[in-house]
Amino acid sequence: MSNKAANTAVKLLTATTGVAGASGLYLLYDYKTCHPMRKIKYEPREGLVRLHNSCVNQLPYSVYTKMSLRDLESFNGKNGNGTYFSAAGKIYDVSTSDMFASAYSRWAGRDATVALAKMSLKPEDISRTDIWKSLDESDQKSLVSWLSYFDEKYYIRGRLKEYYEEDNNGSGNQQ
């Protein structure tokens, strides 16, 4: 959407009141401020995902649906189950993604925290829990960028128990 088109849309939406106007303004805001990777092929429905996850991310850990790594394995897109994966403790529903049905299918039903942080497709970096909390600064930045993108694109369906409830000291990470 060009700036001229965006300005025209704002003028039209300003004249409109109610839910339709508010929805249109939110979608315009979403487009202008979304993750750069989403702009490549912008889909308005992802704006609703972003709004949903913005609210969900504010909830305390205790209210989330919690899954273990073992529970997550059943959400591999087979046997009628959806396709979920986790990253940094968040469980994303990627059932609608063609990429997760093909190129990233190895992450289906698994944890991709280390693989995303290290930009790795190596099988040994999938569901790797030994260095979740000790990634170096560069890996952390990479992971944060991926999480920002996923938060805007895929619904968060829960939290991964092991990421929040277990660490080296047994004290947990209640983010």
UniProtKB/TrEMBL annotation:
The keyword Glycoprotein does not apply. InterPro entries: Cyt_B5-like_heme/steroid-bd, Cyt_B5-like_heme/steroid_sf, MAPR/NEUFC/NENF-like. Residues 67-161 form the Cytochrome b5 heme-binding domain. The keyword Cytoplasm does not apply. One of its GO terms (cellular component) is membrane. It comes from the Eukaryota. This is Cytochrome b5-like Heme/Steroid binding domain. Gene3D superfamilies: Cytochrome b5-like heme/steroid binding domain. It comes from Seminavis robusta. The chain crosses the membrane at residues 12-29. Belongs to the cytochrome b5 family. MAPR subfamily.
